[in-house]
Amino acid sequence: MIPHSRPTIGEGEINAVTKVISSGRIAQGKEVAAFEEEFAHNMGVKYAAAVSSGTAALHLSLIALNVKTGDEVIIPSFVCTALLNAVNYTGATPIIADIDPASLNIDPSNVANKVTDSTRAIIVPHMFGLMADMRGLSKLGVPLIEDCAQAVGASRNEDMAGSLGRLGIYSFYATKVMTCGEGGMVVSNEEDLIERVKDTREYDNQEKYAVRYNYKMTDLQAAIGRQQLDHLDDFISRRRKIATEYHQAFDKLSSGLPPTDVGHIYYRYNLNVGQNVDGWIARLLAAGIASAKPVFKPLHQYLESGDCPNAEAAFSQTLSIPIYPSLSDNDVERIVEAVTIVSKILNT
After folding, report:
1. Nearest to 345, CA basis, from 289, 299, 280
2. Are residues 30 and 348 in contact, defined by beta-carbon separation less than 8 angstroms?
3. C-beta of residue 181 within 8 angstroms of C-beta of residue 221
4. Could you name the CATH architecture of 11-230?
5. How many CB atoms lie within 10 A of CB 244?
6. pLDDT tens for each residue of 222-280
């Protein structure tokens, strides 16, 4: 069975963790500080703060922007529930926007219709490794939080994902582009915002009391993250190579292919297969290939809001097939063969 996702872990990560364990200092410390500095440099920003998860990164970013009860935060529908949870943690009201049908990213024209005097932030996920239209969104005059959980190392016009908003966040969950097992990062070019994040990520040893959180990253996680960061360019190169092979193999199929933008890192390779996604998943599974809907359930369905037709269509028609660095050439050949056969069966 070829799994849908799989982390790429090697001897470097094992040795780095062993070294930290041997030191006897495994909580937040020197490894975290080094990871923050190296990560900021690689993402083209000035400051970074490591945290315990991508959701924690979103929550603390909203707090850093003083988002609170009575405020509104715009988020897209076609995304995981972490964004919805982070907004609800602050007491603000989530406002759900539709997506662009081609990129599957949040649609600036739809967002423009959602902005009110109460809008305090827009969370902008760069979905599946493709940067959203930051230029169009920046024209709305609302603080932007870039969600780069699926887009570490993605770019557009030489701008790195995470470098254009007031803040950028990343996730290092096990199946993300790079992993720490769990973990996240907040970046910004504004030092005061990162200092606020660092202040609120840990609750103890503070001169003045305020509600703070236990959102720290450990040196064990940071040691893995530093190794993963060293291999990030190789990870992305391999993803792009596989994507190119998929493009060439699937070009003549009736299924819609993902965009081929230069800065795309292909965290997911999504096919528009029409209305029979479940049939595709079952047939590929029978061939030993795990695939999935790229979003478990769009947010407008959770909230019973029916004004996101593009997100609804994407949910019912989009299939994600395996694409990650540890896929062998033989794995890729098997996937290509299986997708081609299933396409012929289901599209005839």
Report:
1. 280
2. no
3. yes
4. 3-Layer(aba) Sandwich (3.40)
5. 12
6. 999 999 999 999 999 999 999 999 999 999 887 799 999 999 999 999 999 998 999 99
Closest C-alpha among 289, 149, 173, 201 to residue 271: 289
Residue for token digits 């079952």?
Answer: 282
Instruction: Report, in this order, helix, strand and coil percent for the chain, each rounded to 5.
Output: 40, 15, 45
Cα–Cα dist 245/72, whole Å: 43
H-helix or E-strand spanning residue 281: helix 277-286
Task: List pLDDT tens digits, range 24-53.
Answer: 999 999 999 999 999 999 999 999 999 999
**Domain assignments of the chain as residue spans, ordered by start:** 11-230, 232-346
What is the DSSP secondary structure assignment for residue 20, as one 8-state letter?
Answer: H
Q: b vs e for 79-116, b when ≥16 Cβ sit within 10 Å of the residue's Cβ?
A: bbebbbebbebbebbbbbbbbbeebbbbbbebbeebbe
Which long-range contacts does 296-299 make (Cβ < 8 Å, 24+ apart)?
A: 296/80, 296/81, 298/77, 298/78, 298/79, 299/75, 299/76, 299/77, 299/78, 299/79, 299/81, 299/83, 299/84, 299/94, 299/96
Write out the two tokens for 260. 């081929």
pLDDT over threshold 80, residue 158: yes
Write out the two tokens for 132.
Answer: 């959203």
Of 3.10.100.10, 3.90.1150.10, 3.40.1190.20, 3.30.200.20, the CATH number of 232-346 is 3.90.1150.10
pLDDT in tens, 72-115: 999 999 999 999 999 999 999 999 999 999 999 999 999 999 99
User: Can you give the pLDDT at residue 348?
Assistant: 63
Q: In this structure, which amino acid lies at residue 201?
A: R
